[in-house]
Design goal:
With 147 residues, the protein is mainly alpha-helical. It has one domain. The chain is 94% helix and 0% strand. It is built from two helices and no strands. The longest helix has 132 residues. The relative contact order is 0.02.
């Protein structure tokens, strides 16, 4: 009976060792769950903190983007106004140049034509006077001709 009693003791020792190992594994798993829960809570708190910190930045970025959009629209409008202004100015300068040409250049041409007519008339009158004096002048000029 001693042999079977030793075997029963050994069975109890091994069974106690298995129970202790299972208890230790269960405690380790519970500890791991507690640590994982704490890490998850910290991660959630960190994420919430980051979200709260970023929210004002996102609002500011959105406001800046809205301002930039309004500024671009205003600048585009101003450029269009400037383009219209320059187009109108160019047209008015062309119109003014045309008016100046019609008001000054055309009468000046007519005046030049009138002056040329007066010169031609005076030249004709001088030529008529030379014809009456005779050809003595033509004879004086012939010896001076080199040719």
């Amino acid at each position: 009976m001693n042999g079977s009693g030793d075997a029963g003791t050994w069975n109890l020792v091994l069974l106690g060792t298995i129970a202790a190992a299972t208890l230790i594994m269960a405690l380790i798993q519970i500890g791991a769950l507690v640590v994982a829960t704490r890490v998850a809570r910290q991660a959630q708190q960190t994420l919430a903190s980051v979200h709260n910190d970023i929210r004002p930045l996102i609002a500011k970025i959105s406001a800046v983007a809205d301002d930039a959009s309004r500024t671009a629209t205003l600048a585009s409008s101003q450029v269009q106004k400037l383009d219209r202004l320059l187009t109108d100015l160019s047209q008015r300068v062309d119109d003014t140049a045309t008016v100046v040409q019609q008001a000054i250049v055309t009468p000046a041409r007519e005046g030049m034509a009138l002056l040329a007519a007066v010169k031609a008339g005076l030249a004709a009158l001088r030529g008529f006077g030379d014809v009456r004096r005779g050809s003595s002048r033509a004879e004086e000029e012939d010896p001076l001709f080199i040719g």
